[in-house]
Design goal:
alpha/beta; about 20% strand
Length: about 240
């Protein structure tokens, strides 16, 4: 048995360690969105598969017998494609889906379905902290007149695709205290965040509550109809029974 672990999240790190502890051979795959990812305790490939044909070839050449999908909750294209191919090939497939964030007393959250929908909730003089990654920046090009602060992990290799913004470099984890200080120093008036869930990104939401800042929360795309787990432990237990 060789399990393919689609990684890139904290849950994927926990799964890699858990499967190593029980002796299950694992090949992890990282998309390569981060230049210097934290190493995993299993053999790891970095970069895309080259589309559907490339994924099928990788599965065949590596002798993959099962797939665990622990990618980001917004990696819907990857998850849907992988679930479909695994079903066609008869490979066991499971997806780790962490619980979404839910509001607490004092939160001022506005749920939106797409990045483009943020426009109608942001006044023209808004200073917007955009914590949604660089891959989807083009979807915010309708926010002319607002100042956009885009947080990224790696220093950018290209300018922002719109005027009136700047990159903020930062590598998680971030504490609530540091987020409060950062938002105050930048004069942030609004946050735009994907509802990724998990403990790692919660600090910015807690900081927004303390500062009374509105948060535009982009809702998740639908998941494939497959076997799902909410924790790494559940996923490891499933893999040990295959």
């Amino acid at each position: 048995m060789t399990l393919l672990l689609l990684a890139g999240t904290n849950e994927a790190k926990q799964i890699a360690w858990g499967l190593t502890d029980v002796g299950i051979p694992v090949l992890a795959s990282l998309a390569g969105a981060t230049r210097h990812p934290e190493p995993l305790p299993v053999p790891t490939r970095i970069g895309g598969f080259g589309g559907e044909d490339g994924f099928r070839q990788e599965v065949s050449s590596r002798g993959i017998t099962a797939v665990l999908d622990a990618t980001h909750p917004f990696a819907a294209d990857i998850s849907n494609r992988t679930a479909r191919i695994c079903a066609e090939l008869g490979l066991p497939y499971g997806q780790v889906v962490r619980a979404p964030w839910t509001p607490e007393f004092g939160d001022n959250w506005i749920n939106i379905s797409t990045p483009e929908a943020a426009q109608k909730h942001l006044p023209l003089d808004a200073v917007v902290f955009l914590a949604t990654g660089r891959q989807t920046l083009g979807q915010y090009c309708n926010l002319e007149g607002r100042k956009l602060l885009v947080r990224v992990i790696d220093p950018p290799t290209a300018p922002l695709p719109f005027e009136g913004g700047e990159f903020i470099i930062g590598r998680p984890p971030f504490s609530v205290e540091n987020e409060v200080a950062l938002f105050r120093s930048l004069g942030v008036t609004h946050l735009v965040v994907k509802n990724a869930g998990g403990s790692g990104g919660r600090a910015k939401l807690d900081a927004a509550r303390l500062l009374g800042l509105p948060v535009l929360l982009i809702q998740r795309p639908p998941n494939p109809d497959v076997r799902q787990f909410t924790t790494a432990q559940e996923a490891v237990s499933w893999a040990t029974k295959l």
